[in-house]
Design brief:
Number of helices: 4
Largest sheet: none
Order of helices and strands: HHHH
Shape: flat
Structural class: mainly alpha
């Protein structure tokens, strides 16, 4: 997650979106696992590594 946030910050959201399209199946699998995580662990990790709210896609 941190690496993704860094790429987004340095190269922009459009670049990141285009690059991740090639890994859509893997991103979906990772999202499925993340949704099954303990909510408190997920919240703590997300707070530490998240993309700033103003930079998130709507």
């Amino acid at each position: 997650m941190f690496d993704i946030a860094c790429v987004m910050k340095t190269h922009g959201l459009e670049y990141l979106d285009e690059i991740l399209k090639a890994f859509q199946d893997k991103c979906e699998a990772a999202l499925k696992v993340a949704r099954q995580m303990n909510p408190q662990v997920r919240r703590n990790h997300h707070d530490e590594t998240s993309v700033p709210r103003d930079a998130r896609p709507s």
